[in-house]
Write a structure and sequence with these properties.
Helix content is 45%, strand content 7%. By secondary structure, the protein is mainly alpha-helical. It has one domain: Winged helix-like DNA-binding domain superfamily/Winged helix DNA-binding domain (Arc Repressor Mutant, subunit A). Strand 1 and strand 2 form a beta hairpin. The longest helix has 13 residues.
């Protein structure tokens, strides 16, 4: 089924390489929470702030990160056993 909702159009969209780079830094961080400022410092190359906001919005909408007032947390878990347990689980 095709969504009737149109995808947003950005004048300067981030490249796939940039999205993957940001995703890897967040996924591989040692801490459980990282601020945007700290994320910018850890990126191997500079990323425009507006492009970074687009990437973070995408990662949050795809349920890979959680963006709170404390910072950014990686939440995605690709484990198929976990997904199976969640799908069969009982909601309380």
């Amino acid at each position: 089924m095709v969504s009737s909702e149109a995808a947003p159009v950005y004048e300067h969209s981030p490249t796939l390489n940039t999205v993957i780079m940001v995703e890897q830094v967040i996924r591989n961080m040692d801490e459980s929470v990282i601020t945007v400022a700290e994320l910018k410092k850890r990126l191997p190359r500079k990323v425009n702030h507006n492009k970074l906001k687009i990437i973070l919005r995408y990662l949050e909408e795809s349920n890979k990160i959680l963006f709170t007032t404390d910072g950014i947390t990686w939440i995605f878990n690709p484990n198929p056993n976990l997904r199976k347990a969640i799908s069969k689980g009982l909601e309380l």
